[in-house]
Amino acid sequence: MSNSHLFLKSGFPRAPLQNGLGRYVCQLQRITLKFCKNNGSSRGMRDFIENHLVDFAKENPGIVVYVKPRRHRTPVLVGEYLNGEREWLNCRNNTKDEISKWIELLKTQNGCSSSLRLRKMWHTDVPSVQGPWTPFLLRSPDANSIEYPNIDASKPLDIPKTATDKLIELFKKQKLEAGDGAEDLLKQKRAE
């Protein structure tokens, strides 16, 4: 076991794990764009502020946006989250498209720094090499590409169909092929 964990910040995760079950609350509270008005390394940041910042602020009314010009400094994005964490991103020589991608990343994160040593109430001489459990551990990768709201997304993606579901589907197919009650099945499909 390495001793690299000794230099990490330790604590319990403070982000809500069930965010999005009732309603989604964006965890990004405020974002600060720091840039230089004259320096060439801030060109992308200035272009983003001139062309896209107003649209971003209109699309995300729950995020407070600060613009802070500083002389002879490198451009920086600072995201502050509801759990009190701050995320700093250096944007030196980034284009306006790269900066918009970084801002989108900050917006979708929950403020939990990955460099946090998770604390626990027990000790073992042989620690697990698999890492800590997260709610996203056993999720199907298909869940990443779903557009919400989605009717099929209410069902878990990683659970296979049961034998009962398969039998119901076979029964409906047979009924359709035989032509018996075709009108009833059409009404059921329309209701679904």
From TrEMBL:
Family: Belongs to the mitochondrion-specific ribosomal protein mL43 family.
Domain of life: Eukaryota
Taxonomic lineage of the native organism: Eukaryota, Metazoa, Ecdysozoa, Arthropoda, Hexapoda
Gene3D superfamilies noted in UniProt: Glutaredoxin
GO MF annotation list: structural constituent of ribosome
UniProt protein name: Large ribosomal subunit protein mL43
Residue ranges of the TM segments: none
One cellular-component annotation, GO: mitochondrial large ribosomal subunit
Gene: LOC115626196
InterPro entries reported in the protein's UniProt record: Ribosomal_mL43 (IPR039927), Ribosomal_mL43/mS25/NADH_DH (IPR007741), Thioredoxin-like_sf (IPR036249)
Ranges of residues in domain Ribosomal protein/NADH dehydrogenase: 37-110
Pfam families named among the record's database cross-references: L51_S25_CI-B8 (PF05047)
PANTHER family named in the record: 39S RIBOSOMAL PROTEIN L43, LARGE RIBOSOMAL SUBUNIT PROTEIN ML43
Cellular compartment(s): Mitochondrion
Any Gene Ontology biological process: mitochondrial translation
Record's keyword terms, sorted: Mitochondrion, Ribonucleoprotein, Ribosomal protein
Species name: Drosophila lebanonensis (Fruit fly)
Main location: mitochondrion
